[in-house]
Design goal:
The structure holds 2 protein chains of 2 kinds.
Chain A: H1 5-18, H2 27-39, E1 44-45, E2 50-52, E3 63-68, E4 72-79, E5 86-91, E6 100-105, E7 111-119, E8 124-131
Chain B: H1 4-31, H2 37-41, E1 49-54, H3 87-94, H4 101-106, H5 111-118, H6 124-137, E2 142-145, H7 154-158, H8 162-171, E3 175-176, H9 186-195, E4 199-200, E5 206-207, E6 212-213, E7 220-225, E8 228-235, H10 240-243, E9 252-253, H11 258-270, E10 275-280, H12 284-293, E11 299-302, E12 313-315, E13 318-322, E14 329-338, E15 341-351, H13 361-371, H14 375-379, E16 381-385, H15 398-410, E17 415-418, E18 432-434, H16 435-440, E19 449-455, H17 456-471, E20 485-487, E21 489-494, E22 503-508, E23 513-514, E24 520-526, H18 538-549, E25 551-552, E26 560-563
Parallel strand pairs in B: 1-2, 2-3, 3-4, 8-10, 10-11, 11-13, 16-25, 17-24, 21-26
Antiparallel strand pairs in B: 1-14, 5-6, 5-9, 7-8, 12-13, 14-15, 16-18, 17-20, 19-24, 21-22, 22-23
The chains are: A alpha+beta, B alpha/beta.
Chain lengths: 140, 565
Amino acid sequence: MALTRRNMIVLSSAALAATGLGAMPAFASLAEDEIAKLTGGADVGSGELSLTAPEIAENGNTVPIEVSAPGAVMVALFADGNPTPAVATIKFGKLNPTHVASTRIRLAKTQNVIAVAQMEDGSFQRAQAEVKVTIGGCGG
Amino acid sequence: MISRRDFLQVGMAASAIVGASGFGNWARLAAQQRLTQDQLLEFDTFGNVSLIHVTDIHAQLKPIYFREPSINLGVGDNKGAVPHVTGADFRRLYGIEDGSPSHYALSSGDFAALADMYGRVGGLDRVATVIKAIRADRPDAILLDGGDTWHGSYTCYQTQGQDMVNVMNALAPDAMTFHWEFTLGSDRVAELVESLPFAALGQNIFDAEWDEPTELFPPYKMFERGGTKIAVIGQAFPYMPIANPRWMFPEYSFGIRDENMQEMVDEVRGLGAECVVVLSHNGFDVDKKMATVVSGIDVILSGHTHDALPEPALAGETIIVPSGSNGKFVSRVDLDIRDGRMMGFKHKLIPIFSDVIEPDAEMAALIDEQRAPYEAELSEVIGKTDSLLYRRGNFNGTWDDLICDALLSEREAEIALSPGVRWGPSLVPGQDITREDIWNVTSMTYGEAYRTEMTGEFLKVVLEDVADNIFNPDPYYQQGGDMVRTGGLGYRIDVSKPQGERISNMTLLKTGEPIDPARSYVVAGWASVNEGTEGPQIWDVVESHIRKMGTVTVQPNNSVEVTGV
């Protein structure tokens, strides 16, 4: 049986639950593991990469996010509180007039959305934003 | 050379002097029973532009009592900063004499006794008198309504906001922004907005599907007044789909959108605006942060959190003017706009003492006309109160204690939850409770009183979630209400802790036992944001309870222990 990546994640969650670490495994470290894999452990700086996300999600099932990554050839998006942190990988070619992309993602709970960009020179940049997912209620 | 910042500070000092002398005078004059309309309106017209700001009227057409909070905690950088200063501390900060009209209008303490002395506040017929007087000084003054206008009363509910639209149209505002209006449902909002003879603004009101600006709510409007160009940018309540039921206006998306705000400021400056005014329903702390994130805003007219300050707050080079709620105040801000910028300002927060300010006859007639079809229902006496009934405060108010008691008793529940909204006038001891009074503190389009079961664990999640909406140290994560009110449930809250660690010692008051995370409790509440909530309307639940009580006495509530202040 070939284990797919997704199955691996499901298995590892189950394993964590079984060892009594609680119902919510440490997804944050899953995201960091994936980022480390992507960058090959290279230094990740910050620069012109920017990530726009709402401070509080109006609907956790469809949260609009936008990345602007001038000079990037690739941007990978992660949601560090989701069971599967990898969200999307966006590639920019030389003919792209702007290096901006937007999409909507589902967020299981309050968490960080992380963008990691690979620049033309092979270096990496990172930007992140905390998005709060709330049960809502009563405003003034 | 005097920098712009120095100019602002000079302006601020002038404002403070105007404020201080005005306030001091009121105290002495009132003591001599000589507080007059002229003194309340006294203002040496300044500069070349006047702004008039009203906000958060919550459909209060008639004079009411309104007690300001005694507990309004600030966290993070806003700890101890205005408007998070209350009672005697507030009076010391602004040099307000104890027992003075300003004490009564702006702060808490001795409310019932002072209410007896100074009477009711507000009434849009009195507001009309003030606006007319300002327009007599400055005919082209810009009148701006900060929203939460078409919500909060029996007649507003029955007419789906039409009574307020009719009355406000007679005041002839130049622009408006929004919050509770959207709980009329998007179709009704569109119908009313299309009928308005003035601008309906919101740079942060977007189409939810395409995440792009809407046609119905333009971001700004340019005004040519006093020989200059002024841009007014609207900022609706950012968290409408979270704090209020999203299903009632699914076509719209909000958010703070400060990047777009910056783009709009730059755009209007590019179009020649010499002064940029934001008509905001962000809430005070969010406005204060936004003023430091977005550059180029001269004035923020601040609504939502119902704060009233006797002088503007300064954030960077922006002045923030919060103008209270429920028709209790009108702000006048005169600006000196020259050479492409704001060179100075003068400000007065005018309290609407309803016994001092003469009602405008035309407006009074128009208001009575809106109310006439409902007069019998409005005026029916349901009971009487021996206690001061008020709502404002971070954790509880006597009105909410009474509402929670009604839920516990009428819905046979162990625990009651009541939303931490900030609207709702007060009643003084000895007053009759009419149906109108009950609707003033409960009216909304999703008032069904649910009865359900929640586990102890979920109840803690609810309290933690709401607490983080108020006490998150970053204002951009604050939604501007108060803590959910609890009946039958006591708890301890450490406001300095992060989400998940603030709430402890949850206790079922009936037995004194700790709340068991695994047990289910019968919970009654109202104002659920979930679609399809079932139950009787909250005003009927409260009315039935008060009828049985006859005369209401609310016991002191010590069920919430607050730490980390």
